[in-house]
Design a protein that fits this description.
The complex is a heterodimer of chains A (307) and B (422).
Chain A lengths: L1 H4 L5 H28 L1 E2 L10 E2 L3 H8 L1 H33 L3 H16 L2 H11 L6 H10 L19 H28 L4 H9 L4 H29 L3 H6 L13 H11 L3 H25 L7
Antiparallel strand pairs in A: 1-2
Chain B lengths: L2 H21 L7 E6 L3 H15 L4 E6 L2 H14 L6 E5 H9 L22 H6 L10 E13 H6 L4 H5 L2 H15 L7 H8 L23 H15 L11 H9 L4 E5 L1 H10 L7 E4 L8 E8 L9 H13 L1 H11 L2 E2 L23 H10 L9 H18 L3 H15 L3
Parallel strand pairs in B: 1-2, 1-3
Antiparallel strand pairs in B: 3-7, 4-5, 4-6, 4-7, 4-8
Chain lengths: 307, 422
């Protein structure tokens, strides 16, 4: 019996089956269920039998919903404000790390990578405390800097309400996201830098190329594949940004929904406002946007193009 | 419970058990599941010994989750029809959402006949237990009658009396200015508190806070205009500390005495005394809200899922009545957890007349009891949670960016109209 079931031809499928079963249950089924929900009106407390087909009604509602557009704007704002500096800082940081001695480099890589592997909840709680208006360290530091003669004119005279003022909330969230992922990106770029042959730099030095020219014509082209990977990850991560804004705003998106990203809004729409149909429709719209952004990134980094 | 009620209950229980045993080969149910959230879970556990004495051999499992997790788990259980508890607790803010569908059992149906219990509960919470179809979907357990908690010492320092605070909303604001000038304390934590109470004042029969029973959006009504105007007046006069409820600055404000009053449910007095600001013991007092306003803040219910095991239904109903109609249990819960009972039968207990040391010896439970009797019912709508946020957002725009009140309410109305029938 055993021989009949597990043959050399079927063995790979048996070995793959745990993953396939788990994927079907936790990946494929929710995906398909969400697709059905996107075209349905559903009162979840009435049970699965209460689903009612409404065609594209949920998509029409989503496109008319001001809060959906607002959340999309927040998502894009936070994506640009947190992801762009991540890469702009991570590349020179990786170059600096690459030039260091192995021992100190490893130590710094560990330090930079730490925020990425630390629990988001712990990070957000820590930053909530740091951003506190009256008792937070950040406002205390600003207050101390204000005592300096030149800075007193630039810095605000009163404590900043980072987490309640809609104009301050987005920069606060972007700071946390930047802080969390800049080290991760630096490690990615460091790995890519180590694959660039040293000979190229030696030859360039002998030809009299300046450091900037070496960076421009050797380092950046050498990093192109990793930049595509890193930026694609950032785009996906930005459009799915949830944990940091969710925790920093106590799950509500903040005043004037200034910190409500699309992912937070989808969650709230489904679980706080019981509108699973609209939430599913919006999640598919977000998926389409994500796919388009990823394709555009790949095209921007396509073969034959020069940086 | 009088003899008649006890006999009726016994008959219903016997009939239910009889029906069940006929359809299940004679083995009675031995296990009930109750899903609850903190504090109510403790009350359920405390209630079990007495209940189990009447039902020997029946095991009761209490599943406890944090408030939001509990309600999310209950939505999942109702939507899938699996892992349903026999009895579930519901916080008042969720009752509207849960009662729109068909997931909760209509307790009016025979042999439960829950409607006959009407006279035993505070009227407004009894109304909250009904959905828009008129079905009774839950039994109330506790309520949060709203009152004004104020710092007696700050009032004295400012040369004011309680009457100065409560006579009218105008006198409330005048008193606030005097408090600010003479003591430096803020009248309120946030101008939003003023809006929250005023939109609850003057709700017409058949209306909810934000929607009418026929889904009309009500946010441009005079009570919203007045609420926004008063909140703006509070902000312009610099009378609010600009801190939100449950923030660390809010609790710190209570500890340091920078917030002079708070309009909120009766339960806050207990929270202040036990963990929010115990060092302010003796300094607080409770009064009715200004200008004879009455409002409810919070409350809990128990409901029976319609698709839960029908074999356990009568037992679960019996346990539900035990949890909501047992005078001693509810008074013990009031004493231990500051949970104000929804059962009117408890209101004549001498416990209500006892002085509260945290409130300087004031018998404040009488104040809360009077408020509970006078609060009027407000119909709940499934979009109330969303509407609450829309209104808060627009109020913030008025307070922070000086947006015109008419324009703010019109914008809120436009957003809510899109949602009213979803």
């Amino acid at each position: 019996m055993k021989r009949v079931l597990i043959t050399p031809a079927s063995a790979p499928y048996w070995l793959l089956s745990p993953f396939l079963i788990l994927f079907a249950v936790f990946g494929l089924f929710p995906l398909l269920f969400s697709l059905v929900l996107a075209f349905s009106r559903w009162e979840p407390t009435s049970g699965l039998g209460a689903m009612e087909w409404v065609g594209i009604g949920n998509f029409v509602f989503a496109l008319q919903d001001e809060w959906f557009w607002k959340s999309l704007f927040n998502t894009l704002w936070l994506g640009v404000a947190s992801a762009l500096p991540q890469h702009l800082v991570a590349i020179p940081l990786a170059c600096a790390l690459n030039g260091m001695l192995q021992r100190s480099r490893n130590l710094l890589v560990g330090v930079y990578f730490m925020p990425y592997i630390t629990s988001t909840v712990a990070i957000a709680i820590l930053f909530s405390s740091l951003f506190s208006t009256d008792y937070g360290l950040i406002n205390a530091a600003i207050g101390a800097l204000r005592e300096l003669p030149l800075l007193s004119a630039i810095l605000p005279a009163s404590a900043i309400d980072w987490l309640n003022d809609p104009d301050r909330l987005k920069p606060a969230i972007a700071t946390v996201v930047f802080w969390r992922f800049v080290g991760f990106n630096a490690v990615l770029y460091l790995a890519a830098l180590q694959t660039i042959p040293r000979d190229l730099y030696e030859a360039a030095t002998m030809d009299g190329a300046s450091r900037w020219q070496q960076f421009r014509y050797i380092t950046l082209p050498g990093l192109r594949a990793m930049m595509l990977f890193g930026i694609t990850l950032s785009i996906i991560g930005s459009l799915q940004l949830f944990e940091e804004p969710f925790i920093l705003t106590n799950g509500r998106g903040g005043n004037d929904q200034a910190g409500m990203t699309s992912a937070v809004y989808l969650y709230r729409l489904a679980f706080d406002f019981n509108d699973f149909g609209a939430a599913s429709a919006m999640s598919w719209l977000l998926f389409a946007l994500l796919a388009m952004a990823t394709v555009a990134t790949h095209r921007a980094f396509g073969e034959g193009r020069k940086l | 419970m009088d003899a008649k009620r006890r006999a009726g209950l016994g008959l219903a229980l016997a009939a239910g058990l009889g029906l069940w045993t006929r359809s299940n080969g004679g083995t009675p149910p031995r296990r009930l599941t109750v899903a609850a959230y903190p504090k109510l879970d403790a009350i359920v556990k405390a209630a079990l010994p007495a209940w189990k004495a009447r039902h020997p051999g029946v095991e009761v499992e209490v599943i406890s989750r944090e408030m939001n997790d509990h309600h999310t788990a209950m939505i999942t259980a109702l939507s899938t029809g699996s892992h349903l508890p026999d009895l579930m607790a519901l916080e008042v803010g969720y009752v509207g959402r849960f009662s729109q569908g068909r997931g909760l059992l209509d307790l009016r149906q025979s042999p439960l006949d829950g409607e006959k219990l009407r006279s035993r509960f505070v009227p407004y919470t009894w109304e909250q237990a009904h959905n828009h179809r008129g079905e009774l979907v839950a039994l109330p357990s506790d309520i949060g009658p709203g009152t004004l908690l104020y710092r007696h010492d700050i009032l004295q320092k400012a040369g004011l009396t309680e009457a100065d605070l409560t006579r009218s909303w105008a006198s409330f604001l005048q008193a606030g200015q005097q408090i600010r000038a003479r003591t430096g304390a803020y009248l309120l934590a946030h101008a939003r508190d003023m809006k929250d109470i005023l939109i609850r004042t003057g709700v017409q029969p058949g209306e909810g806070l934000y929607f009418s029973r026929d889904n009309r959006v009500l946010v441009r009504s005079p009570r919203f205009v007045r609420a926004f105007e008063m909140a703006r007046a509070v902000r312009r006069a610099g009378l609010d500390a600009r801190v939100y409820n449950w923030s660390s600055d809010w609790t710190e404000g209570f500890r340091r005495g920078t917030i002079a009053t708070q309009m909120i449910g009766a339960w806050l007095a207990g929270f202040l005394g036990s963990w929010l600001a115990p060092q302010t013991r003796g300094l607080w007092r409770a009064a009715q809200l200004p200008e004879g306003a009455y409002a409810a803040y919070g409350g809990s219910f128990y409901a029976l899922p319609a698709k839960a095991d029908p074999a356990n239904r009568i037992l679960a109903w019996d346990l539900m009545q035990h949890l909501t109609l047992n005078r001693k249990l509810l008074l013990d819960a009031f004493q231990a957890h500051d949970i104000f009972p929804a059962l009117v039968d408890t209101f004549d207990d001498p416990f209500f007349d006892e002085p509260l040391p945290f409130l300087g010896g004031q018998p404040a439970r009488r104040v809360w009891r009077d408020a509970a009797r006078k609060i009027t019912a407000v119909a709940v709508h499934r979009q109330d949670g969303f509407a609450d946020e829309v209104i808060n957002t627009e109020l913030d725009k008025v307070l922070l960016r000086d947006k015109d009140i008419g324009a703010a309410l019109a914008d809120a109305e436009r957003l809510l109209k899109l949602r009213a029938n979803r």
